[in-house]
Input
Amino acid sequence: MHFHKKPSWDKFKDSDVTPEEVFNDRRRILKQMGFLGAGALLSSNANAGIFDLFGNKKEKQTFLRSDLPHTQNTEYDSVLNGALTPESKIITHNNFYEFGTGKSDPAENAQGFKVDPWKLVIDGLVDNPLTLDYDDLMKLFALEERTHLLRCVEAWSMVVPWVGFPLASLLKKAGVKSHATHVAFETLFDPEQMPGQKSRLMGGGIHYPYVEGLTINEAMNPLSFMAVGLYGKTLPPQNGAPIRLVVPWKYGFKSIKSIVRIRVMDKQPPTSWNQLASREYGFYANVNPNVDHPRWSQATERRIGEGGLFSAKRINTQMFNGYGEQVADLYSGLDLTRHF
Ligand SMILES: Nc1nc2c(c(=O)[nH]1)N[C@H]1C(S)=C(S)[C@@H](COP(=O)(O)O)O[C@H]1N2
Ligand SMILES: [Mo]
Output
């Protein structure tokens, strides 16, 4: 796969080159690597930061979203640095490789996605396996709005007002058995609706269905959230309708979308990006400015919606994305450089 070849971008420092120079040099490197031209860009999977440089086309949004009744939870707002990301950005700048690897592909290709009827199964090491339908997802639990930072491993971030309920509420309802250690999540597999699952090229090389996982303690942490909406309305498909995970202290790829199965287990489940490139993407994937990605720095990030493509303005990335007070004790004694 292409990710075995590593262009070294680390030599660039924000202070000594302009963003235009970085952009042009990245294009040059991509060309040399064969990523540009002949549609080859689409076949690069681990190139995260690269897709981010291209296009953010505004597409007509035809998917119908409804208002969701909810209360406000402002408990975590003190972590937030900066304004809410505009809704128009949150729903047009996406990573959802089932609908294509470009940032504007999901908004463009997912408008016809069917989210009702839906079936979410919670099974494995639980006392009461559950099967929830679309209405259950929207009504079984009291919905709250919480605003969280979303930090992608590609070094961009957003501030998103989600609507949903704690993952722990769902797991408690199912009754987790005492010897459980992990929770596995799975996205819908439906190549007819998800063109990225049909074509290896369009799907970025990921082996579908997309899968993710947490330890049981991570899953039970009050920060782990099941989102069914954003900006007060149901999720658009490109953001993971009808239900997706939000794990705000981890890189965005942990926050798996359009979930059909949650399985409680007694071992660590496989996870999609780790399967694809284990040297670059670990199981834990905690946001950590001190552990760089093999091909780029994680010390800073670009806030989507602030400044243009070539804006040199970057903000410092926080350990655990700023949520250390809530989650640092989950990792006491764990070497986070090794368990990245
Ligand atoms: N099923 C699925 N879930 C996914 C992804 C994906 O490609 N497929 N991309 C992940 C990545 S890399 C990020 S950064 C976030 C992006 O969420 P957003 O599009 O709502 O900003 O979704 C995550 N969840
Ligand atoms: Mo991401």
